[in-house]
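New to this. Explain the following:
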Amino acid sequence: MSGSGGWTRTAYAAAHVVSDPLADCDPWLDAALDWDRTLAFREHLWSLGFGVAEAMDTAQRGMGLDWPTSLELIRRSTELAKAGGHLIASGAGTDHLAPGPDVTVDDVIRAYEEQCEAVEATGSRVILMASRALAAAAKSPDDYGRVYGRVLSGLSQPAILHWLGEMFDPALAGYWGSADHMAAMDTCLSVIQANANKVDGIKISLLSAEKEIAMRRRLPDGVRMYTGDDFNYPDLIAGDDDGYSHALLGIFDPIAGVAAKALSELAAGDADAYAATFAPTVPLSRHIFKAPTRFYKTGVVFLAYLNGHQDHFTMVGGQESTRSTVHLAEIVRLANTAGLFPDPELAAARARPVFAARGLST
């Protein structure tokens, strides 16, 4: 399924959530969402032609957004998607199971099955998220094969796998049973090959174009590569003589309007226009996703605030504090260069109180 503009690539935007700044809760411990604004942003993405990847790490899944709130988010978003005929896929993982020495591989299987059953009950396709508990419990690559084989066999429709690198989540280091990404890739591919009828595709987030292309060329027929590379997405989506990547990207949340234009240009066969449209977004994306990469959500939400998609710069988990004032100022500069402010005066007016609160007068 392609975008509403007749795109030649399937493109999911991993969407952020809008916190409720007036909720009487402890932000480090409790997740309180502004449901109206959160869902309105998904309608915005759908209106541009994107699918929504729901309750993923861009939504601070496992980093402020707990499983019960994630499931409610998936329910509400899927209801809207079904009513409007929109594309949605939602994260199922094991984040309600805390890793620990007593957690077994069988415990991980049960946790995955619980979430997958709940997600499929909403009508959404499953994105099978990487599991911190599995990374801690697995003793060998064979354990990954056993877990994924069992979980995938129970799904009613093919899933999208998600290999999230340790640069996004340090607790996932050594996933697929090896710290060597190429050895890990062999294990992952063997899992996909053994369960190809249950796998729609895989999103890899390793921030390495070379590794993604190497894996893309080895996928079984009919299994898609969804780029999760927020550094190299224009070239990976454009592809080469041997194939191309579809997309499931966090950066598509803040650059949605520009990305939709680029994907339409690609579909029209105008490769030069496609490249020119995407080019100025890459320095911005590399800045937003710079190390520590797991803090990228701060830049995503900051841009949503500047562009009027929410009325405050407050995040689930208090994560608006994870980036420096200098970092945020560079986001403003790079976003302006990339043409991401439809109303520059609004963006400037919204930026001023944020910087004033951080001790910078303009």
The beta strands are 11-14, 51-54, 88-92, 125-128, 159-164, 199-205, 224-227, 246-249. The radius of gyration is 20 Å. DSSP finds 14 helices and eight strands in the chain. The mean pLDDT is 96.
